[in-house]
Design goal:
- Strand 2 and strand 3 form a beta hairpin.
- The protein has nine helices and 22 strands.
- Strands 1, 2, 3, 4, 5, 8, 9 and 10 form an eight-stranded mixed beta sheet that branches. Strands 13, 14, 15, 18, 19, 20, 21 and 22 form an eight-stranded antiparallel beta sheet that branches.
- Helix 3 crosses helix 4.
- It has two domains: 304 residues, Rossmann fold; 96 residues, Immunoglobulin-like (Sandwich), CATH 2.60.40.
Amino acid sequence: MKNTESGKIFDVDGFFASVINRDPNLRRIPEYDAVGEFEGIQAVTFDSIEYNGKKTKVFAYMAFPDGADESTPGIVLIHGGGGHAFLPWVKMWRDRGYSVIAPDTVGNMPIDINAGCTESNGDWARKLHGVFEEDGYIPSPDNDGMSTYNLDVDRRWLTHITSHCILSFTALAQSGYADKNKIGITGISWGGVAVSYYLGFDSRPAFAIPIYGSGYLNESLAWMGERFSHPETLKYFRAEDRFAKVKMPVMWLCWNDDFCFSINSNSKSYLDTAPNNPLTTLSIVDCMCHSHNFAWIRPESEAFANSIVKGGDALQSFTSLPNGKSPVCTYAYSKEVAARLYYITDELEYSMHEKHGMNNTFLNPVWQSVPLNAENGTITGDIPCDACGYYIEIKNEDGVIITTPYIKTER
């Protein structure tokens, strides 16, 4: 495919393969190590891909649980839009027994110690200053909202954040405090978009958890669909074009009434990747809401990660899916589950209107639900006669939710 500006052929697969082989040049910045409740979280930088002919420098937080060594599981944390490297998110995963790296993906550098202690924390500057200044370096580019389709591919933000994912994984794998075969990755919102795309280029992660974001974004019924609809974007940035290469277990975690994404995209992403790994799963959550904090407090991420790399209990899973006429399906789990059918009585359509206390592009119909019977590995019940579409939820004793994809009813 040709770059827009230069007209040269751009080999996106070859490009990211070369990034996987790069040394991230990880450097400690002790002047900005966290203190207080976040004691032990280290400030670091690493080199990412060039922008306008100059090296880019990325800031990140790293942390290791007590006694961490080369057998410790790890995780890469990719924040979303309006976010930064988050200390509470790092601490949460470190306290769970994981070695952690959380890069800032929009060129931020901290201007005070404990920057990133809250979602709205403003102790950041999009420039290299003080100890971060270095000849020949600039910060990585800011999130462009997919608006730079007229630029060469290596100047677009999604190319840079994908490189950050790759190099963060490499840095953690090289740290000496993580098992390179037990490192996963998760991303929230725009970070979920990036992780969904990244997975088609890097087979190293042991698991992946894209939250809110997914593939098939040009088909999103919320405002994100417009962002991915330009032909120059579709040439390079359709995550689904490489889902056949995604062999690791993936948890697609999302909100059923998201104002950025819509569950048809998450459902299709799950259906594409589920045949590649029996542990791949989908979790569509009612009343989840959309923010960094709402994403990272859900129990599904930890339970899924633990089941893959820490010997935790296997999650409940669907062993057959229902069809558009009947909710009857089967599942596997050693304990009791509660099953519900979530349905809408109008088409899966979005419009700008007030809902959940805000004005945004929300789903027009309201989700309704009815209980189903779950016994001896089989779910039974009825689809309400006025349902246009539905999905089935099974919830375990820890509140972890696993669902079917969204299914249109057949009348």
